[in-house]
Amino acid sequence: MTNHVTTKWLGNMAFESDNPSGTTLRIDASPEDGGEGNGLRPKALMLSSVAGCSGLDVASLIKKMKLEVDDFVIEIDAELTEEHPKYYHTVTIEYHFHGKNLDEKKLQRVVDLSVEKYCGVMEMFRHFAKTDIKTFFHNN
Predict the structure, then answer these.
(1) Full-model pTM
(2) InterPro entries from the xrefs (predicted)?
């Protein structure tokens, strides 16, 4: 399977990139880097991609397993190398589950399945970064 994306320069440091879904997003550099700051940053988009990929897995498994979850948030902190080309060398991904009747054992299994088996973006990250996975349960 091949995905195709077209990214068009809008002038200055801004770009518009499409997606196989038909939607677009704007990419722009920060003002410090010559842009206007009116778009998403490429490296941060990588973090959104890993969160989105794993999040879709987790949401699907929560639904399939009929687990009770009121809210679910993924927080990511990533450290860049000092030298150019700068890339993420360490990535900490936190899964936060909120609810009254959280089945912690099953939810941890859901996270593990996404991280170890289903999320292709997570697998790509493991090729260039140390990934640290943490799961938190917030029983309301």
Answers:
(1) 0.93
(2) KH_dom-like_a/b (IPR015946), OsmC/Ohr_fam (IPR003718), OsmC/Ohrsf (IPR036102)
Residue 98 neighbours by CB under 8 Å, 6+ apart: 69, 70, 71, 72, 73, 138, 140
Element at 120 (helix H, strand E): helix 120-126
The domain segmentation of the chain, as residue ranges, is: 1-40, 42-139
Q: What is the DSSP string of 82-119?
A: SSSSP-EEEEEEEEEEEESS--HHHHHHHHHHIIIII-
Give the Cβ contact number of residue 55 at 10 Å: 17
110-124 pLDDT per residue, tens: 999 999 999 999 999
* Secondary structure of 3-41 as H, E, C letters: CCCCEEEEECCEEEEECCCCCEEEECCCHHHCCCCCCEC
Question: Domain 42-139 class?
Answer: alpha beta
Count Cβ atoms below 10 Å from residue 100 Cβ, excluding itself: 9
DSSP state of 70: S
What tokens were used for 12? 């200055």
pLDDT at 104 over 90: yes
Neighbour tally for 37: CB within 10 Å: 13
